């Protein structure tokens, strides 16, 4: 909070209050986040914590695993890093999903191979846990795992109200 020295005492207190509110909201968002691993060597699903009904979540899948004894590799969406995965895909809720990849680390798009092996998918919670499993016909020749992170996405209205409140707090009194 080094930058607070430029404000008067009243503004400094308001700014600290705003920062405290933002920290609490950020902590609430982080509290709903989770990360786990899905094994490529098992057909057993890994279940998320229950996802709040109506809440938007960002699911990020990353990493690679070997899906044959020969060492052929697969990530969440592409096998041999060339073809969209029909088989060997990471299933969400028992369904194949349209994973979004990125070539630049900024813009994510459907059916885009990601050289960093990081893919995104957006999901609205239904008030229940969601199973994640790598689909394959033979698991005995697989090794490795994919990492899955689930993070709640704040509503735009909440972010807008926070910004408006912050501007109000910083407004100069006449």
What is shown here, in short?
20% of the residues are buried. The chain has a domain at 34-154: Jelly Rolls.
Oligomeric nature of the chains? single chain
Spell out the CATH superfamily of one domain: Galactose-binding lectin
> Percent of residues in helical segments?
10-25%
The H-and-E topology, N to C, reads as HEEEEEEEEEEEEEH
Number of helical regions: 2
Rg calc: 21 Å
Rough shape? elongated
Topology, number of strands: 13
Second-tier CATH architecture of one domain:
Sandwich
Poorly predicted runs of 5 or more residues: 1-5
Structural class: alpha+beta
**Percent of sequence in beta strands:** 25-35%
Mean pLDDT: 79
Biggest β-sheet: count, sense, barrel? Answer: 6 strands, antiparallel
> What is the CATH topology classification name of one domain?
Jelly Rolls
Distance between the termini: 26 Å
| CATH class (first level) name of one domain | Mainly Beta
Question: What would you say this structure looks like, in words?
Answer:
- The protein is elongated, with a radius of gyration of 21 Å.
- It starts with 8 loop residues before the first helix and ends with a helix.
- By secondary structure, the chain is α+β, with helices and mostly antiparallel strands.
- Helix content is 22%, strand content 29%.
- The protein is built from two helices and 13 strands.
């Amino acid at each position: 909070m080094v930058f607070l020295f430029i404000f008067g005492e009243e503004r400094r207190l308001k700014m600290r209050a705003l920062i405290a509110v933002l920290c609490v909201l950020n902590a609430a968002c982080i509290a709903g986040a989770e990360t786990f691993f899905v094994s490529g060597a098992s057909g057993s699903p890994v279940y998320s914590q229950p996802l709040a009904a109506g809440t938007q979540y960002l699911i990020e899948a990353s990493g690679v695993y070997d899906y044959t004894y020969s060492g052929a590799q697969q990530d969440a969406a592409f096998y041999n890093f060339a073809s969209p995965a029909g088989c060997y895909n990471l299933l969400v809720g028992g369904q194949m999903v349209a994973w979004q990849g990125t070539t630049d680390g900024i813009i994510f798009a459907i059916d885009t191979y990601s050289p960093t092996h990081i893919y995104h998918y957006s999901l609205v919670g239904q008030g229940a846990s969601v199973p994640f499993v790598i689909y394959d016909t033979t698991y005995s020749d697989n090794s490795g795992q994919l990492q899955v992170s689930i993070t709640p996405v704040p509503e735009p209205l909440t972010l807008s109200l926070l910004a408006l409140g912050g501007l109000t707090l910083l407004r100069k009194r006449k």
